[in-house]
Amino acid sequence: MGIFWDISQCLRSYQTFFFSLAAFPGVLVLSWYPPGLADDNGEPAEDLVPAVLDAVAFHIQPYRGRNDQTVHDNIKYIIDRYGDHGAFYKFTTGTGKSLPLFYIYDSYLTPPESWSEFLTPTGSHSVRSSAYDSIFIALIVEERHKHDILAGGFDGMYTYFASNGFSFGSSHQNWKAIKAFCDGNNLLFIPSVGPGYIDTSIRPWNNHNTRNRVNGRYYETALQAALNIRPEIVTITSFNEWHEGTQIERAMPKKTVTRVYLDYQPHGPNHYLELTRRWAEEFNKEKEQWLM
């Protein structure tokens, strides 16, 4: 469980705290750019991977020039560099294979016929049945993307966005149908949940997508919606993406001359970590029953 969007110094200081408090078998999903192509927020993830390598998967970002061939090369680079580390996350498939898992953000920017050259067994630079074979998860935003994801050779889809109703994929009411489509086509469906959403500090026009936390009820409603469809994996958006108001990390009341930061009062600073632990425990209990 868990998506980290921008990587910064706080990740170093909070990773131990997060896992000791949340206390569940989670995976850090790091936003990753190739060396030299990191965004302007925080340090390049490449420099921080050794510092946070406890249980790690990678969230491949839409850097300039990204296509099926460059992602092929990225996967090779990541597996060559980190694949032998004990904390490099691998997902066990229904057939018993243990494979790395990668999330491809904004996967729809590349057409499915290009992805298929990389992700289907007959593709011109396929990784299937090679040392670099992995579980590749695409982003579903619009309904039509589910067909493109299937045609492209992906292994599943995730929804990412924390704002219920923002997109087809992020709308809780659509998850049952998406899960049925995935089950019928041997794909993973990974719903993404968040504690709330507010990005008006950077997108003043986007107030209609704000989702109030309601003291944790929004988060718990999303988590329940996810558990209702019995997924293999649930991701959380996010640990520390403050500029979109989706963080679950420890938060203290703070205000500056220009801004008042949202906090978790009347609850304590650890409220969302505590909720995460509780729901992770519930998820694991229910999952055991599903598999009986």
Written account of the structure:
The chain is α/β, with parallel strands linked by helices. It has a single domain, classed as Glycosidases (TIM Barrel), CATH 3.20.20. The chain has helices at residues 9-22, 45-52, 68-82, 112-119, 145-152, 175-184, 217-228, 271-290, and strands spanning 28-32, 56-60, 90-92, 98-104, 135-139, 156-158, 188-190, 192-193, 235-236, 254-255, 260-261. Helix 7 (217-228) packs parallel to helix 8 (271-290). The longest helix is centred in the C-terminal third of the chain and has 20 residues, at 271-290. The two termini are 22 Å apart.
Keywords:
hydrolase, globular, 292 residues, two-stranded parallel ribbon, 8 helices, seven-stranded mixed β-sheet, TIM Barrel, alpha/beta, alpha-mannosidase activity, Mannosidase endo-alpha like, signal-anchor, golgi apparatus
Shape field: globular
Tally of DSSP β-strands: 11
User: How far is the N terminus from the C terminus?
Assistant: 22 Å
CATH superfamily: Glycosidases
CATH first level: which class? Alpha Beta
Main structural class: alpha/beta
Low-pLDDT parts are 1-14
Roughly how many Å is the radius of gyration? 18 Å
Largest sheet: 7 strands, mixed
* Range of strand content: 5-15%
Number of helices: 8
* CATH architect. name: Alpha-Beta Barrel
Oligomer: single chain
Number of domains: 1
Could you spell the SSE succession in H and E letters? HEHEHEEHEHEHEEHEEEH
Average pLDDT taken over every residue: 88
Helix proportion range: 25-40%
CATH topology: TIM Barrel
